[in-house]
Amino acid sequence: MAVQLNTRVREASEYVFPMPPVAGAVSDVRRRAGAVLAAWKVSPDVIEDALLVVSELLTNAIVHALPPAVLRLSWMRDAGLGTLRIEVTDAGPAGQPPAGIDPDEHGRGEEIVHALATRYGIETRPGAVTRWADLVAV
């Protein structure tokens, strides 16, 4: 009896960005994430959507959660299909949002992530919350 092995080649890459607690950190991490995605040869359309998701998830962590925040990008290509997972992990809710936040300027990030992602979710464990989104590319 002959057994056929699955010989498809799967590519996987991962990159982790700690989020420094300084002004301008989101734009810096976003810029570095864009360079990593380009190096992975992720399509420009997916990169554009991914960077918007990165910005929304990181901003959410800064405004609503305790530090530290960490961004993790994972890229998997299998049988011509690519999946980019974006994860932001923080130390959990910080309580009330900072004073002076205009509700007309905030609060749409989750809707944006849901609109752009193929799948999304939240994982909680003691002392940490991870919000994640998958973007799929052909």
* Overall form: globular
Give a short account of the largest sheet: 5 strands, antiparallel
Helix and strand content put the structural class at alpha+beta
* Strand coverage percent: 25-35%
Strand segment count: 5
Helix content: 25-40%
**Uncertain runs:** none
Across the major sheet, the strand order is 1-2-3-5-4
Q: With helices defined by DSSP (H or I, 4 residues minimum), what is the helix count?
A: 3
List the secondary-structure elements in sequence, H or E. EHHEEHEE
Q: Estimate the mean pLDDT confidence.
A: 85
Spatial extent as radius of gyration: 17 Å
Q: Span from first to last CA? A: 36 Å
Structural write-up:
- 32% of the residues lie in helices and 34% in strands.
- By secondary structure, the chain is an alpha+beta fold.
- Strands 1-2-3-5-4 form a five-stranded antiparallel β-sheet, with helices on one face.
- A hairpin with a 2-residue loop joins strand 2 and strand 3.
List the helices and strands and how they pair.
Layout lengths: L9 E10 L5 H15 L4 H21 L4 E10 L2 E10 L18 H8 L2 E7 L2 E10 L1
Antiparallel strand pairs: 1-2, 2-3, 3-5, 4-5
Helix pairs in contact: 1-2, 2-3
List the main descriptive attributes of the protein structure presented here:
single chain; 138 residues; alpha+beta; five-stranded antiparallel beta sheet; 3 helices
